[in-house]
Amino acid sequence: MNTVVVGGMDDKSTTTRSSHTLYSSSSWKNPSTAHNDQELPYVVAPAVIVTADGKTDTGTSMATPMVTGTALLATSRNSSLASWPEAIRAMLLATSAQNVDGAALPYLPYGDHKDGAGVLNAAFMARLSATTYASPPGGNYSSRGHDMRTLNFASDFNSSTGYFNNQWQVYTSAGWTRVAIAWDGVGDRTNHMLDGDLDLEVRYASNGNLICSSASYDNSWEVCEWYGSATSVVIKVRKITATSTGTYFGLAWYSWTSPDD
Ligand SMILES: [Ca+2]
Ligand SMILES: [Ca+2]
Ligand SMILES: [Ca+2]
Fold it and tell me: Has residue 1 got a pLDDT over 90?
């Protein structure tokens, strides 16, 4: 639940992204949960004929360390991230821009998608982890940012609407923009309980109309994206239910035109 579940992709030994596919033995089925909408994996990474430290092998055992290494790369660029795995998870979900199976995102709770949020992008993660992209709520920000904070479910959310008392205003670039949130829970994959159920909404700053949203029950994360012109949006987080006094929370957003930007 507070981890990153990693699947595999096959890069066919080429940098031509259109040739890439899901690794044929990558697990993708979802566990049985209270609402049966927990989506696994979260992301995928290269798994076929991977050479590391003198060893060449195939399998998700090769993909998973690549995600771990990318998380360490982020913490090496911004040491405060070392205490915030929630921010690392949100950043991984926001930057895994390449799609190798089905829809670009698992549009919860409608599908069971095999590549999660997409293919790990270490370059995007390295860029987004810079301290210059640390972006607390209440500010006006550019097209890339990350945040991490402790949320108090009683005092930080409107008691009637459930919205987080603050929001992030973002001026996005033309192209794709993805927003992701992640938080914590306890338990194993079948007997787990989130600290609470949070949902994500992104709305146009100009008129408040919804641009994208994500509202699953059993995931410790939400992610949504859109394609369009440069625009100004507000990111809103909503508390649906709470099972604890609060949680640790991470947020990330990222605009791109190509996974090779
Ligand atoms: Ca996909
Ligand atoms: Ca799945
Ligand atoms: Ca939710």
Answer: no
CATH number of the domain that residue 138 is part of: 2.60.120.380
Q: Which ligand is nearest to the CA of 22?
A: 1
Whether 261 is covered by a domain: the verdict is: no
* Residue numbers of the domain that contains 70: 6-256
In order of 5, 213, 248, 249, the CA distances from 162 in angstroms are 29, 15, 17, 16
Residue 18 within any structural domain of the chain = yes
pLDDT, tens digit, for every residue of 124-163?
A: 999 999 999 999 999 999 999 999 999 999 999 999 999 9
Ligand nearest to the CA of 5: 2
18 CA → ligand 2 middle, Å: 22
- Domains: count for the chain: 1
Which of the ligands is closest to the CA of residue 111?
2
Q: How many angstroms does the Cα of residue 44 sit away from the middle of ligand 2?
A: 11
Give the distance (Å) from ligand 3 centre to CA of residue 53: 40
CA of 215 to the centre of ligand 1 (A): 18
Name 213's bridge partners: 201
Cα Rg, the chain, nearest whole Å: 17
- The predicted model scores a pTM of 0.96
Q: 252, 196, 244: which is closest to 84 by C-alpha?
A: 252
